[in-house]
Amino acid sequence: MAPTYVFAVVLVLCTALPKINGYKEELKKTIASCQDGREVTDDEIEEFVKPLIPQTQEEKCLMACVFRTFNVISDGTFDKRIALAVSKDLLKSDPEKVKKITAVIDHCGDDIPKKMGNDCDLAFEIMQCYVKWEKEVGMI
Q: One Gene Ontology cellular component annotation (predicted)?
């Protein structure tokens, strides 16, 4: 699987993610790398891909590490273009979901601070925005 699909998993951009073969293994590798090689269980992956707002500094920084790995966060900035391109590609067979996730990403691209000095806090802002707008556009 292409690494950019992992970003979509991280943001939970698609409710049908379990149908994508291999995403768990790719995500496990990425998370393990972000945790200095610590093994990651299937249960941890299931928890990680839920559209939840990270609460602890450790959770925020883990999310930031995954985002940085796939250039979603770069130099303290959220790259809305990457998020949108991956989402459109992943959801191309469902135009209604593409429309909804485009709205979420557009809102978040506007709502998230343009630049932040702390990637962990930026990851928190991204997920907080995603969860808020996911509900607003009727994705959940």
A: extracellular space
Would you kindly state where each structural domain of the chain is located, as residue ranges? 4-136
- pLDDT tens digits for range 56-99: 999 899 989 988 887 788 999 999 888 888 778 777 888 888 89
- Which amino acid makes up residue 20? I
| Size of the chain in residues | 140
Contact present, 69 and 48 (Cβ < 8 Å) = no
CATH topology for the 4-136 domain? Recoverin; domain 1 (1.10.238)
Assess contact for 48 and 35: CB atoms under 8 A.
Answer: no
The answer to whether the pTM exceeds 0.85 is: no
110-to-41, 73, 84, 98 alpha-carbon distances in Å: 35, 15, 13, 18
CA distance 4 to 53: 21
Residue 39, classed as helix, strand or coil, is coil
Give dist(CA 49, CA 97) in Å, integer: 18
